[in-house]
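Our collaborator T.R. sent over the components below with a one-line note: 'Predict the complex.' Nothing else. No constraints on interfaces, no templates requested, no preferences about which chain binds where. So this is a plain run: every listed entity goes in together, and whatever single assembly comes back becomes the starting point for the next discussion.
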Amino acid sequence: MIHPFIFFEWLEHQLHLHIGNHVTYTWLVMALLILVALLVKRNIKTVPTGLQNFLEPVIDSIENMIEETMGPKGKAYFPLIATIAFFILVSNLIALIPGFFPPTANLNTNAAMALTVFAMTHIVGLKEHGIGYFKHFCGPVIWLAPLIVPIEIVGHLARPLSLTLRLFGNMYGHEIVLMIFFGLVPFIVPLPMMLMGVLVAFIQTFVFMLLAMIYIAGSLEEAH
Amino acid sequence: MEFFAWCVVAAGIGMGLGSFGTGIGQGLAIQKAVEGVARNPGASGKIMTIMLIGLAMIESLAIYVFVVAMIILFANPFTDTVVQMLSK
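Returned assembly:
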């Protein structure tokens, strides 16, 4: 129940390859982002023009948001979070072009990103606090630890699951709703759903980014 | 064949119940957020951020139901067993 015609699938079929839609479209998004980055990087000016003018406020607002939610220490994690944000946004928006499949409507792409964030939080925590990081899991009082530790472990393991499933469910659900409307009445009626798709694309990017920031900030702060 | 009919029914009712609770929850969250912004418009940015995180958390409940419904409809693990039992 996705787009009836997917361009890269057709191309793969012509070339007798079996890669999978989500992988080919991930490559497309990556190529797009790298191309734009190279184009902007080639002539950076103090007084921005054109593409640089468009991207500077975006980068600026992401930087501000990171500083707001993570504090001054969060600046170091700007590359990770901004990359994830751009990747998710572009792959979500690509769904609106006919013949294109959003890589985020596949569990594997999302799981890869969520696991990266999950690993990052614990690496950051261990690097920041050393062995004292395990105090995070022990709760406020030491004799409560046997009770708190299992809960904390389950809570931490639920994070990548919920990150993955939220993005996947939203994108895949939108795709299915769109196709059902398209099957019922192909004229005009799917248009409001597509408009909602733009909204969902931005909100899901925002949510994923924000949750990644909060998780990393949570392991940055001192145990209480 | 009855098995598959009940599968569709279960997916539909499950999705309905899931979105019922989620809708109420999100409505309450937005109500409080709007009240907060009406009282103190200066804090709208912060309230918006927190509200969106909360909404995403509530929404994931409906998303879980949706994923389960999709598994029931398109990737049902019992399909093979039922088809084997039917063919006997």
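Summary for T.R.: Chain A has one domain: 7-220.
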